[in-house]
Amino acid sequence: MARTAAERGAGVITYAEATDIEPTRVHIRDRLTGDEHTLRARQIVNATGVWSDTLSDEVELAPSKGSHILVPAARLGDPQAAITAPVPGHFGRYVFAVPWHNGLVMIGLTDDPHHGPIPDRALPDEGEEAFLLDTINAVLEDKLTTDDIVGGYAGFRPLIKSSDSTDSADLSRRHALLRDSRTGALTIVGGKLTAYRRMAEDAVDDVIRVGGLRAGACRTTELGLVGKGTPAPGLPDRLVAVYGTDAATVVAYGDADPSFNEPVREGIPLTGAEVRFAVDHELAVTIEDVIDRRTRWGLVDADRADLYDAVARLAPELTTESRG
To answer: Which residues form the FAD dependent oxidoreductase domain (predicted)?
Structure first.
């Protein structure tokens, strides 16, 4: 999505932490170098999710944590479709086991209130792992155990605080637009990924109205994201599934240097070409960007250290978040 916006003139800056908002100004700090800058704009939108309340005292959130675990697909009979298990005592709520890549299945997700700071890299805790295993095991003949878990990850939903409920599953998933009385910045919170276009439309409409901006015709109603389209024939199926039409660009790295076609580690199909694509085309500036966010291969605990070293060799210009 960010690449699609950038192709049409948007400026995209990563690792830029917004430290303060003033009317028409945002102060940011580069989290890797510590450098500080000020950006100016006629209208400011705070769309920082579970960090929204750090930039506006008038935003009250009740973050919810959603965790997933990864297990070998063979332990579930190599499913080709999702397995669904109802959560006892919660009508309409389910845990899903969904085929992932490289012979794994993703099982999720939890939905529990989160208290305290939001970590940069969130993982399931023991209680969440137990909940997911217990729920999915109810529909499995061959039960899973914690020994089957090879990795996992978690995320946070920016739910709007309500005095009427302590159960995060009961809090509204609807989004809300809030104007800060001090800065005038618009904060958008709540909602969910499947409604992101409606959320963006409401935010842009509000910015145009309040800021007295001139609006042109919407250009994104039928705009496909980068990678959409019919790929060139003969491209590897795995790359097409991940990159769409951009698979041709990934393959070109291997055409120029056949060593880039080699897997970065035995047992993992990730290639040097994909690492270079993440750096050159997907704004990856740290090793964690490549293994955790662009390719997602770092989510398997046993593979993470080897991947870290391999990516460092293939892209020596990358830094690490631990140095930032």
So the answer is: 1-197
Q: What is the pLDDT of residue 169?
A: 54
For β-strands 186-190 and 45-46, DSSP reports them as parallel
Query: Which domains does the chain carry?
Result: 16-61+165-211 (3.50.50.60), 64-157 (3.30.9.10), 237-323 (1.10.8.870)
Q: Report pLDDT digits (tens) over 168-179.
A: 554 556 899 999
Whole-angstrom distance, CA of residue 180 vs CA of residue 112: 28
3-state secondary structure of 63: coil
| Cβ density class 292-313: b for 16+ within 10 Å, e for less | bebbbbbbbeebeeebeebbee
Query: 280: closest CA among 309, 305, 308, 256?
Result: 256
Burial of 264 (0-12, 13-18, 19+ CB in 10 A): buried
